[in-house]
Design brief:
The complex is a heterodimer of chains A (about 260) and B (about 350).
Chain A lengths: L3 E10 L2 E11 L4 E5 L6 H8 L7 E6 L2 E2 L5 H7 L1 E3 L12 H9 L7 H6 L2 H20 L15 H14 L4 E5 L7 H16 L3 E5 L3 H7 L2 E6 L2 E6 L1 H5 L2 H10 L4
Parallel strand pairs in A: 3-8, 3-9, 6-7, 7-8
Antiparallel strand pairs in A: 1-2, 1-4, 4-5, 9-10
Helix pairs in contact in A: 3-5, 3-6, 7-8
Chain B lengths: L1 H21 L3 H14 L7 H26 L7 H18 L4 H20 L7 H21 L1 H4 L12 E2 L2 E2 L6 H21 L2 H11 L1 H6 L4 H27 L9 H14 L5 H16 L7 H15 L19 H16 L1
Antiparallel strand pairs in B: 1-2
The chains are: A alpha/beta (about 260), B mainly alpha (about 350).
The complex binds adenosine-5'-diphosphate (ADP) and magnesium ion.
The site of magnesium ion has 3 residues of chain A, from helix 1.
Chain lengths: ~260, ~350
Amino acid sequence: MAYLEVNKISIRFGGLTAIDKFDFKVEKGQIVSIIGPNGAGKTTVFNILSGIYRAAEGEITFDGRNLKDKSPQEIVSLGMARTFQNIRLFYDMRVIENVLIGTHIRTGYRFLDGLFRTKRFHLEEGEKIRYAADLLKTVGLEKRIHDYADNLPYGEQRKLEIARAIATGARLLLLDEPAAGMNPQESEELRQFILQLKNQGYTILLIEHDMNVVMNLSDYIYVLDYGKKIAEGKPQEILENQQVVAAYLGEGEVE
Amino acid sequence: MEKIRTGINRLTEGFSYLETNVYKYRIILYAGGLSLSMLLPVFGFSQYMTRIFIMIGIYTMLALGLNILTGYTGLVSLGHGGFFAIGAYTTAILMLRFQMNFLIAVMIAMVFTGICGLLLGLPTLRLTGTYLSIVTLGFGEIVRMVIMNFDTVTNGTLGIRNIPRPSFFGFELTLANHGLFYLMLVLLILVTYVCIGIQNSNMGRTLRAIKADELAAVMMGIRSSRYKVGAFVVSAVLTGLAGGYYASLVSYIDHNSFTFDVSIMILSIVILGGMGTIRGMFLGAAILVAFPEVARPLMEWRFVVYGLVLILMMRFKPQGLLGWRSRLPYKIPVLKRSQTYREEKEANRRGR
Ligand SMILES: Nc1ncnc2c1ncn2[C@@H]1O[C@H](COP(=O)(O)OP(=O)(O)O)[C@@H](O)[C@H]1O
Ligand SMILES: [Mg+2]
């Protein structure tokens, strides 16, 4: 059984079938991409996976466990965390604090430990703070540790959002259009960064429009249009697929 | 208009620079501030002045309590006068009817106020912004209604008289022997300590994250509902403590002691001082409590003035007078502790 297996999920908003019997799977250590025109339902898939929406039908199995009726918290603690299409950082907080929020799900000390500053509090808090600082170093944000999140340039905000997701201890990262709004140089940097994550053993499910990123990184690609899967395959197969080209031409997104 | 903005901003800039420079000497500063407040009675102030200092202390506690909810978590309550009243009435009734010692009465009152906080926090979990404010406003009024109509317990509109002063081992604390002043100081230090503890632990960080972006916090695995209810409870407990002390201080309370004005006053202090700061609550309370005393002729107009203050702050300086982003680096504890931690774990494993 694959690491993440999604079996014929559907969801409807009023009359609109946003996702229609979509199935896909992700093997451990892979980078798998979901592409498709705007409004195809890609972000909705992430919202279902992360527990914001419930699929009307279908099954999701992650790391051998059924995600049905699991709360967002349970899903994160099982090892899946996400980023957002429109970056959603805690802007009024420092870079390191953003990452620390990610570690909270793994922090064991209680309210009263914090109040009375017990030994346990000091040990765990110190450990998590140093972990966060180290993590920021490995993603190349060591100079930004003390800054406030909204002072970072766009590219670094994206990185921080990914670091925050990693801090939860997740091994499967859902990245929603991480290269959106980046210039070619930034998006190339991002590509290297995602590759580095893969080499560190993370599994990545990626939504992306930037074809340089998608085609060079993906092990496997699924194409979504109007909530339906219209194609799947290796990058080369997708490039040669007439239906995919047509879907994109309709949107005018081919570069 | 621009001038006001730059004026206020320059003031805060100044404070902010001050923070960077005096941080090294903070221990001396705290110690100095503390000993100065402890010496206040020695300077021989009149009871009138002592009373004002005490009121500043009470409102600082109230603001610190509301700050947990409004400052950190971003949930604006217009009904904290209600919790204040619950704390005061519970303490008064326990002391009068059951001859309880002040400390025990206050502790029970805090628990009871906390339960009321829970009961208000749970059903309002899904509300934010204006809706939440309206419900909390309603809560404050309902508390007043209950006080006015539940005669058998609260003595209705007649109020409760002759609430005893706190006494310890037969020693009664009064204004004259400065006991009440020192008790206020002790409680204020306690409340401040709790707030610092919350601010510097994952609770405070989580509350701020929820304020910044609740959905993002939930997606990081945070159970935001628990924390929001938790903030309600802690906020209510601290407010209840202030209420209990207040009842024993003034020895007469009725439904008019806890009107909507009180709730607005507390909120004004939080906003003026700087939401999400601890230092700001002290300054905010000092300004807004002392103001009507200094400007007697303006007494009738004070709520117009508070309203104006709120509008001006919201317009020009929503962070409040003392609300700034610290320029100090974030404290990263040295590795030593982690080593001891690992060693301990190792030792435990070997021990087993
Ligand atoms: N909460 C919602 N309520 C109603 N419609 C929604 C909701 N979320 C998404 N949709 C609709 O579902 C479709 C897919 O949206 P989305 O997943 O954001 O597309 P993509 O990410 O592929 O651009 C769109 O038509 C969108 O309007
Ligand atoms: Mg999208």
